[in-house]
Amino acid sequence: MKIGFIGLGSMGQPMAHHLLQAGYQLTVYNRTPQVAEVFGQQGALVAQSPAQAVKDAEILITMLADDAAVEAVVFGSEGALKALAPNAIHLSMSTISVALSKRLAQSHTTAGQGYLAAPVFGRSEVAAQGALWIVTAGNLQQVERCRPVLEAMGQGVFHVGTEAWMANLVKLTGNFMIAAVLETMGEAFALMQKSGVAPEQFLEIVNTALFKSPLYQNYGSLIVQERYEPAGFKLHLGLKDVQLVLSAAESMAMPLPLASLVRDHFLTAIAHGQGDIDWAALAQVSAKNAGLNQLSNGN
Predict the structure, then answer these.
(1) CATH code (residue 172)
(2) Listed residues 117, 144, 163: the one ending a domain
(3) Most distant CA pair in the chain: distance in Å?
(4) Considering 55, 82, 171, 194, which one is annotated as catalytic?
(5) What are the pLDDT digits (tens) for 123-162?
(6) Residue 171 catalytic?
(7) Which of 126, 142, 163 is the last residue of a domain?
(8) 104 and 19 co-located in one domain
(9) 7 and 145 in a common domain
(10) What is the pTM of this model?
(11) Cα dihedral 8, 9, 11, 15 in deg (nearest 10)
């Protein structure tokens, strides 16, 4: 099967690597060509434009940072939409807005192409292990056609509905819940620190007696150690996702008061220069509000 892969960032690189290992014919495109050339040395074809990347492709995979990047590679002057063959499938794995997902679905349908949303849960180290959790939505027959490709990159696939945007909403809501956990841990650890209880001991207690969650363990360890660089997921991307879930909720007349609070705390962190460190640094906002320390650029 021929696959066009666009977006070789910290997530896209390990995902594309697993597809090469699985024996797929891969054509890659990346805005920074040096990254794509590495895949060329490993047997992939290197395209000079999004349109060239999807020539003869049966599946197009996009793994990009935000709406603007996806719009540029799909709808741009050398975009993938016009070059993608009829009946080929765009497998959109980026974390994008519900509104853009709806636009993509309509545009691909008009062009006689398939479109599936398939965002992922897992950081870059999880992608490197081929252990992502993938959430799909769209035509079920198209999902089954893409399933071997998805399984080459992840440990499990969930299908949540026939409308592609549903998967994007699940992903955004999941990221909002992670952000809410970061906010909760930041407040709780600040309270412990002010009370003279070691935050790392508190983390051990609650993650043994209450939650037993790798999410608490992994992010809690980042926070108590103030280990925010290198960023597994940058804080400004966390703000983007919370803003997108708020926008989706507003379109449904659904208030999300906690998401609004978390958004404001993300903005506070970014105002203090923390946009490019790990989003676990959200916890430092609560520490500063408690008078414990000043916001910094991480350690």
Answers:
(1) 1.10.1040.10
(2) 163
(3) 64
(4) 171
(5) 999 999 999 999 999 999 999 999 999 999 999 999 999 9
(6) yes
(7) 163
(8) yes
(9) yes
(10) 0.94
(11) 10
Q: Which residue has tokens 């002010």?
A: 194
Residue 280's domain comprises 168-289
Question: How many domains are there within the chain?
Answer: 2
Paired tokens of 59: 């599946």
pLDDT band at 246 (very low <50, low <70, confident <90, very high): very high
131 and 182 in a single domain? The answer is no
Strand-strand pairing, 59-62 and 89-92: parallel
In this structure, are residues 54 and 86 in contact, taking their beta carbons and an 8 Å threshold?
Answer: no
Amino acid letter, 147: R
Tell whether 183 and 273 lie within a shared domain. yes
Summarize pLDDT for 92-119 with one digit per residue, the tens: 999 999 999 999 999 999 999 999 999 9
Integer Cα distance of 219 and 182 in angstroms? 7
134-145: per-residue pLDDT in tens?
A: 999 999 999 999
- Of 144, 82, 139, the closest CA to residue 116 belongs to 139
